[in-house]
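User: Could you walk me through two proteins back to back? I'd like the raw sequence and the structure tokens for each, with a short line separating them so I can tell where one ends and the next begins.

Assistant: Of course. Protein one, sequence then structure:
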Amino acid sequence: MNPALSVVFFTTLAGAGQGLLLALVAAHWAAREGWIAAAMDPGFAALGALVAAALAAAGLVASFFHLGRPERAWRTATQWRTSWLSREVIVLPVFIALTLALAAAQAAGRADWALPLGALAALAALLLFVCTGMIYACIRFLREWATPLTPLNFTLLGCANGLTLAAALAALRAPALLPFFAAGALAFTLAGLAGRLAAWQRNATLAPK
């Protein structure tokens, strides 16, 4: 398969944004529970959430370039009962909106709003990973993709990208959080490698029908 570059840009950009949001929420909860000594600076959290929303929005823009009739893109959301693509089209704007709301709450210093908004945005990010992965995993005649490893690898690699980006931002704006994000980036990169190796091993054993 040779996917269109617009699809590659979408999955990479949006996945990194989702992973970055999940990394920020995880760091916030870890600091709140005392699992890490460093506190989450609201300014850094707001910046990170804005970057995550921008990446997801850029991915959304990129996705329009592989549509034959972009002006009819809204119709893709009407088949949400049966289509994973429709569900993705619905969840992505919800994720962007929740992430922007989280950035606004952090910038305003509203910790009471940041926690529930972060939880909702994290849930939307995970749902979006599932929707994106299932678009390919549900194609039964492409047996290389028709496996639970497909959405799993979308999630692992997206989180690895997001944590790597979070580590880069922390190195610039919040050095105390760098060890947390760097360790997470390494762990998810290795997990993503294991997931891809498992998929390659599975695909190598598939016999043609």
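----
Protein two, same layout:
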Amino acid sequence: MLDLVRAWLFPPACAGCEARGPALCADCAPTLRDAIDFEVDGVQAFALGGYEGALRRAIVALKHGERDPLDALGELLAARAPVIGTLIPLPTSRGRSDARGFDQSVELVRRIARGRGLPHAELLRKRGAPQDGRSRLARLRAAGRFRLERDVALPPTVTLVDDVCTTGATVRDAMQTLTAAGVAIRRLVFVARTAPDRRIEPAS
């Protein structure tokens, strides 16, 4: 009921041009040519585009607790992201998800899984302080932020999903936790990637 009232009072609008409708209209959504293919420690990674423009504004909206971009971003990832095995979200901290009312990576994984008919599981729990406000060096030095959920069956192969790849430190930390448990990580999927030579620090 609250979501219906909110939608009536504040109808969805494009994060790029503010036109009423989807959170990313056809003119502002990233195109196939915007996609970025790269590697993190030898694992193939994919992002819909760079962390800029309308894509950045849509992600920032998520981080401020707005749900509108979830469907648009989930649909784009379901259509374009190369995935193998079970989809695994890189969760934010419990405090962050409670404050927002949802965990954006978990919600995106659910939408990708539904769109592609793929299995998904929440294997990881994040602990420690959030990454926003930390310097690039502090991000790279941070470790041990993830642990496995208890009593969860571990799939043999997985694709990890997160919203933004900045330094790669967060996903490397998750990869180490899963690899140590015998899980093979085949793909990494992100909504956006910051340019390697820029030091943008999006909130976790």
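Confidence is low (pLDDT under 50) at residues 131-142, 199-204.

Let me know if you want the two compared in more detail.
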